[in-house]
Amino acid sequence: MNSHEIDYTIHGNDMQTVAIELDPGETVIAEAGTMNWMDGDISFETKMGDGSQPQQGLLGKLMDAGKRAITGESIFITHFTNQGSGKKEVAFAAPYPGAIIPLNMAEIGGEILCQKDAFLCAAMGTSISIAFNKRLGSGFFGGEGFILQRLRGDGMAFLHAGGTIVKKELRNERLLIDTGCIVGFSPSLDYDIQRAGNLKSMFFGGEGLFLATLQGTGTVYLQSLPFSRLADRILENAPSAGGNQKGEGSVLGGLGRLLDGD
Questions:
Q1: Fewest C-beta in 10 Å: which of 4, 134, 154, 261?
Q2: SS3 label, residue 216
Q3: CA 160, CA 115: separation in Å to the nearest integer?
Q4: Stretch 53-79: mean pLDDT, rounded?
Q5: More reliable by pLDDT, 256 or 130
Q6: Nearest to 132 by CA among 148, 116, 118, 143
Q7: SS3 at position 234
């Protein structure tokens, strides 16, 4: 593979943005709706496909689009190209708070598996496909379902995760993880699902019924706050249809509503 060589700067700490610097003619591909800003000489085009196979016909593009639809992602990928004469910048961020993981694909073996909504952007030439989990258990009980995304290439790729990112190196070891906390991992690791302790622990422990297991030698990227967990907490404390409100600050909130005449 010959991915475009792009430079980048990551801005921020807890709610990060990655700014990609493109030389004339260079292209970066990104998930639809993730662009924050771009210089005037950068053009963008939404396409079915990541552009890693220029000779791919219409049928191949339709098949790739169908695979992305299975993961719940948009069937389109946006291509941003510098049409100017000097270096130009385009920036991306995910639609929820978190951090960005920069990956030099050539340095990590050219391939990584990641959860279906982790991909943010990558240098042109990066292949984005799906990977079916090998084991039936992981398909039924894993937070990511049957399907993970597979990134292949030799350039820069960027993943997005919620909360704090932790990178762990496994050396013929076994790691138990909440399924939603996995961002990505080396394809050399064996991914499976196991029951979370005994029946009492499963139903009353608060950790879910099943845990993901990664075993072998390779790299794992973890996130401390999966978006699904954040969304569940927001929904739990959101006002109900009947107008009831609960959560932290409810007493002061009630006082404020009283003063406002509510």
A1: 261
A2: strand
A3: 10
A4: 61
A5: 130
A6: 148
A7: helix
Task: Give SS3 for 204.
Answer: helix
**Contacts for 56 with CB less than 8 Å, ≥ 6 apart:** 49, 64
Confidence of residue 169 (pLDDT cuts 50, 70, 90): very high
* CATH value at residue 54: 3.60.160.10
253 lies in some domain: no
**CB neighbours of residue 202 within 10 Å:** 14
Q: Residue 187 and residue 253: Cα distance in Å, rounded?
A: 49
**Into how many domains does the chain fold?**
1
What's the first-to-final CA gap in the chain, in angstroms?
62
Residues 82-99 as b/e (b if ≥16 CB within 10 A, e otherwise) read bebeeebbbbbbbeeebb
DSSP 8-state secondary structure symbol assigned to residue 178 = -
3-class secondary structure, 131 = strand
Residue 257's Cβ-count burial label (10 Å; 0-12, 13-18, 19+) is exposed
Domain range for 101? 7-233
Task: For 88-129, write each residue's pLDDT tens digit.
Answer: 999 999 877 889 999 999 999 999 999 878 999 999 999 988
At residue 212, φ and ψ (nearest 5 deg) are -80, 150
* 239 in any annotated domain: no
Of 152, 139, 161, nearest in space to 223 by CA:
161
- The DSSP 8-state label assigned to residue 14 in this structure reads S
- Does 249 fall in a domain? no
Residue at 71: amino acid letter: T
Q: Tell me which amino acid residue 222 is.
A: L
**H-type alpha helices, 96-226:** 136-141, 199-204
